[in-house]
Design brief:
The structure is a homotrimer of 121-residue chains. In chain A, strand 4 (62-69), helix 2 and strand 5 (93-98) form a beta-alpha-beta unit. Chain A is α+β, with helices and mostly antiparallel strands. In chain A, helix 1 runs parallel beside helix 2. The longest helix of chain A is centred in the middle third of the chain and has 19 residues, at 37-55. Chain A has one domain: 60s Ribosomal Protein L30, Chain: A (2-Layer Sandwich). Chain A has a 6-stranded mixed sheet with strand order 1-2-3-6-4-5, covered by helices on one side. The termini of chain A are far apart. Chain A is built from 2 helices and 6 strands, in the order E-E-E-H-E-H-E-E. Chains in contact: A-B, A-C, B-C. At the B-C interface, strand 4, helix 2 and strand 5 of B face strand 1, strand 2 and strand 3 of C.
């Protein structure tokens, strides 16, 4: 058994999430790709929840998120989905930058979390 | 008490810094936003210092920094502020990429540090 | 002796790799800069291998990689080099974003790995 747990993704050349040493790393985009920043952000955050669960964490344990967005002028829509999702008792550090994403992606989330569940503090 | 320490930011939906498992994560932009890459970088690094202090670390313990900059052609000005700031006995790994930032931001810094102070080595 | 190991880079103001608390952080670009995405990606991954070795890790222990690329439309060439390089028994989490890089750089890799070698799992 390795000390690194890898959650398989859709291709064999990358993992969906990796857990090691009390940390969980995952990257998510929207599963559906409508031309709507709010809906893609909401969907990508839903993917984050699932991937964290698969790797042994949850949103109360997220440490930091980098949001890559296809148009930073649409940040209000991104923030709306974020504000609905975030655990306000345990908010992560957050960065946000506009980049060019692949295909129909409007958002890509790079997440580092602590392993475990149900933080109190 | 949680094993995760969160330093509150200006809004309840994100933290300014987070400490967990010997690591500290923080993101900083300039507090003042003059149209000057050197001054914004200097100011953002000052914010990093404050935020690391609030989370129990300092610049001698910084592991890695990703610099998002609004114009990579202005990297000399970024480097000038960096070179004045960095602890040359304990320099971090560094990445630098031009992205589109929000509003008047010219620089955004994503920092991972080790907890603790006064590294010797 | 510090608990942080820093591998010196080409300038004193940054490190090539840093190891701390079971984690290794490194950033790499291609050493040679031909105008060819595949060749630069291949070369940058070779640099990752060297830098991980210097810091006490290897590609079987890579946790997550962020690929900054100068043209996301050239992702097939990036993927070709990735697929040749990656350890399919231990694939990392991966993010990819188009940004503007400095000078002739077509790719920049930001890598987090676990310390140690020869993972089995």
């Amino acid at each position: 058994m390795s000390d690194i747990k890898r959650v398989p993704g859709s291709v064999v050349t990358r993992s969906q999430a990796v857990a090691y040493g009390g940390l969980v790393f995952t990257v998510a985009t929207a599963v559906e790709k409508p031309a709507d920043f709010y809906l893609q952000m909401k969907d990508a955050l839903r993917a984050v929840d699932k991937q964290l669960a698969a790797a042994g964490s949850d949103k109360s344990r997220v440490l930091t998120v980098t949001i890559y967005v296809a148009d930073v002028a649409r940040k209000a829509e991104i923030n709306r989905a974020w504000d609905e999702w975030v655990d306000r008792s345990h908010p992560p550090v957050r960065a946000c930058a506009e980049v060019v994403l692949e295909g129909a992606d409007l958002v890509e989330l790079v997440v580092t979390a602590a392993a475990g569940h149900l933080a109190h503090g």
